[in-house]
Automatic annotation (TrEMBL):
Cofactor binding note from Swiss-Prot or TrEMBL: Binds 2 Mg(2+) ion per subunit.
Compartments it resides in: Cytoplasm
Entries under Pfam families matching the protein: RuvC (PF02075)
The species this protein was found in: Methylacidiphilum fumariolicum (strain SolV)
Residues annotated for Mg(2+) 1 binding in this entry: 11, 142
Gene this chain is encoded by: ruvC
Similarity comment: family membership: Belongs to the RuvC family.
Subunit annotation: Homodimer which binds Holliday junction (HJ) DNA. The HJ becomes 2-fold symmetrical on binding to RuvC with unstacked arms; it has a different conformation from HJ DNA in complex with RuvA. In the full resolvosome a probable DNA-RuvA(4)-RuvB(12)-RuvC(2) complex forms which resolves the HJ.
Protein name: Crossover junction endodeoxyribonuclease RuvC
Function: The RuvA-RuvB-RuvC complex processes Holliday junction (HJ) DNA during genetic recombination and DNA repair. Endonuclease that resolves HJ intermediates. Cleaves cruciform DNA by making single-stranded nicks across the HJ at symmetrical positions within the homologous arms, yielding a 5'-phosphate and a 3'-hydroxyl group; requires a central core of homology in the junction. The consensus cleavage sequence is 5'-(A/T)TT(C/G)-3'. Cleavage occurs on the 3'-side of the TT dinucleotide at the point of strand exchange.
Amino acid sequence: MNKPIRILGIDPAIRKMGYGIVESNGDSVQLISYGVINGNGNDQVRRLRQLYDGLFEIVQKYVPEQVAMESVIFVQNRKTAIDMGAARGVALLLFSLKDLPVFEYSPRTVKIAATGRGSARKEQVSFMVRAILSLNYSPPADAADALAVALAHVHNLWNVRKGYDFIS
């Protein structure tokens, strides 16, 4: 049996940042926790502080060893892109300060790992997260996305252990 590794999955956003924590021993994966960190109000700086504080608390409580984060997607709205970049920056700063390695996965890679299809809809990804983790219910959408990112990283680690290339 391999030493278990705890992975924090992140679905970055400034208003609702999803997180999901799983643990894998190389043969199985177990759900530890999940949720959404809310960035409330209209003040961007205040929302970013709320995200930082929420992530800090999660890292302190669950002590992940690696972080898997969904990479930036193409967005047409400039304000959305700026907000997304700011939220990612806050998360990346915290992970850097905590010396946590961060692995980034494209939305397509996450969907393929969860469902086998890169064009899967959010509902399909959520359904597979529920099935893989043997849940009786579906987590909130942002948390389900974060769990899917964490599961994509677990899948990648399993493949690397079998001698395949690391995919991001």
